Amino acid sequence: MKSSVSVLIYLLPVPLIIFSLLIGPSEQFGLRDFSYALYAFFSTPNHLSNIELARLELMQNIIVNVRMPRVFLTFLVGAALASSGNTLQALFRNPLVDSYVLGISSGAALGAALALLTGWLPVQVSAFLFGILAVCMTYGFAQQRYEKSSVVVILLSGMIVSGLFIAGLSIVQYLSDPYKLQAIVQWTMGNLHQATWEKVEQAVLPIALSLLGMYGMRWRLNLLALGQLEAQAVGVDPRRDQFLLVLFVTLATSSSVAVAGIISLYGLFVPHVVRMLIGPDNAKTVPANIFLGGSFLLIIDNLSRTFSTFEIPIGIFTMLLGAPLFLYLIRRYRMNWA
Amino acid sequence: MTAEFFGLFRCIFLLTFMGLVCAACTPVHVPSDQANTVQIDVTDRYGNRVQLQKPAQRIVCLFEASADDLYMLGAGSALVGIPAKIYSAPDLYHAYSILDRRIAQKQIATPSNWEASTNIESVVALQPDLVVVNAGQTDVIKVLQKMQIPVYAVMSENLQQTRKELHDLGALTGRSERARQLLQFIDAEIAAMNAKKHNTTQQKTVYYGWSGGRIFSTSGIDSMPNTVMTLAGARNVVTTSIDQPNVNPEKLLEWNPDVILLWNSRPEQIYERPELKTLSAVQHRQVYNLRPTFLFNPHTPKILLAANQLQHWLSGSVDVHQDAAHDMQRILSEFYGATHAAQFIHMAQSKE
């Protein structure tokens, strides 16, 4: 059963990406029109009228410049958030942890808000830098002079740093005019409707590197999940590995937040869904989170962009769809983390 | 000894505290012998009745568009409190500095930042005889009314409200005649634009993009930008009634508007996007920016200026820029006088 689910998870992205490219909010460019255009182009390419050619050009523009960057960006962001959440849950041995626990989301939100208010830096760059800054502060505050920082101290430190950045965000919102406030609020709800190839280029390298890093360390993650002493007993340097994994998570999450805003709780529930479907072995959950995380966010975004003529922020749809699914799976698999 | 001392201290503290609570619960007695001498009696759109013995001399205006109205009415000198955003937003500060030297020197108090962050103590300390406040600040309105301070609530969500508020502010400041002139001018301008509308054969379509580069955030049919389009004789491509929906670029390509109207965003943000290159408005260079925003504030009578300029841009005539500039001079002169109009136009040109 679990192996067939695994196969399904790994095979899902390709048909889903193709399907996502063929649907959109515009009424005139659905699946049927696309099939007709392809048929017309291949059957009588030299006999197409100017109107048909213009329509083909428009369709090509929509698919190449609007849908493709959005579909790829959504998949990347979903994969990054889910794998980061999975890695942190294993690393901190805590099922309540998500990809934003180290203060990345609040840091990035403050960075984006400052950029929107003052224009001192591009929004994505500012969000990325502040996300990294928040993680550095979390680790800085959690550092103990004579002994290793415990997981609880790191998590507490992350919460406090988040609180600090949220306070900063509140100040910026308070000082912002209504137009900028609207932009800040919308940014914090998650937004993929402004996806461009430029954003894909910005996000693809750090996210791909981070995902590769997490994938490469998936076996070590199993050892780290046993605890620091146990990991040391089998020859693993937990501090070095923990540092590397947190670095990958920070890079992946900051890049995602910078290009797509905050998509709440996605990094919390997708790793749980994956564990329910294929078990707790991190050697399997890491790649499964990459594939299912990307695919599931793509499904949500497909609904988000085709549901009505205007866009509904993806952060809203994520919870509207993700929460019932998660609750259903909890009941279905009778999960109990006690 | 120490225990007795602390016991006594506790008693004194409790008695003082109870006294303060009782004092706070006692209604403040404010002499109210003014009813017989009321000369001005206005009721705002939200049912607040404002009665004044004489035209307001000390006005705290916490709604920026209404402060602008007061300058158009010639009552700007009565302002003793304004929103801090007039100082902090460069466009606004520049514009209001032209209208009032006190603003240029930052001499007028700022008891609120934006429309929803009022410091009541600062307002009261200014001893206003009229407070103009955003209708959404219901708590502030109630507190000020309890203190017997006349409060006029505004919102300016559509042209009808703007007209009523201009009329009422004219009455409250003793500038009813000037308000009447402005309202007549508004009617005449709308009639002139309607006449032009009937001469055009085909209604053009417009897409509106919000400020600060939010080009995919637009405005629905119940919005002020929609009123601008309607006055200009155009049709909004967005048909939803949501005030500020986000749209997919794909939808914009499908709508393919004739003109794209931006609010404080650079047209290059449209022109430079590869996915929008097939848009008719992009191919015909029909992307326009309403900036500086002060000159086109749709919550004031200047909504006419925005509509007028849009109508020129829609016309596509050869002398479009010359005609638009001429009308801008004419309309601003009517609102602020010829000298200020010239300064505003110079300001607009320096922003381009």
Fill in the keyword field for this structure.
heterodimer; A: 338 residues; mainly alpha; 76% helix; 1% strand; B: 352 residues; alpha/beta; 5-stranded parallel beta sheet; 4-stranded parallel beta sheet; 16 helices; globular
Question: How would you briefly describe this protein structure?
Answer:
Chain A is mostly helical. Chain A is about 75% helix and about 0% strand. Chain A has helices spanning about 1-10, 15-20, 30-45, 50-90, 105-120, 125-140, 150-175, 180-190, 195-215, 220-225, 230-235, 240-260, 265-280, 280-305, 315-330; one strand spanning about 310.
How would you characterize this protein structure?
The complex is a heterodimer of chains A (338) and B (352). Chain A is mainly α and 338 residues long. Chain A has 15 helices and 1 strand; from the N terminus they run H-H-H-H-H-H-H-H-H-H-H-H-H-H-E-H. Chain A has helices spanning 2-11, 13-21, 31-43, 50-91, 104-118, 123-142, 151-175, 178-188, 197-216, 218-224, 228-233, 238-260, 266-278, 282-306, 314-332, and one strand at 310-311. In chain A, helix 6 (123-142) packs antiparallel against helix 12 and helix 9 (197-216) packs antiparallel against helix 12. Chain B has 352 residues and is α/β, with parallel strands linked by helices. In chain B, the strands form 3 sheets. Chain B has a 5-stranded parallel β-sheet, with helices on both faces. Chain B has a 4-stranded parallel β-sheet with strand order 9-8-11-12. In chain B, helix 2 links the parallel strand 3 and strand 4. In chain B, helix 10 packs across helix 14 (303-315). The A-B interface holds A 24-29, 57-58, 61-62, 65-67, 116, 174-180, 182-183, 186, 191, 193-194, 196-197, 305, 308-311, 313 and B 85, 89, 113-115, 117, 210-212, 214, 216-217, 238-240, 242, 244-251, 253-254, 264, 273-275, 277-278. Strand 1 of chain A pairs antiparallel with strand 10 of chain B, so a sheet runs across the interface.
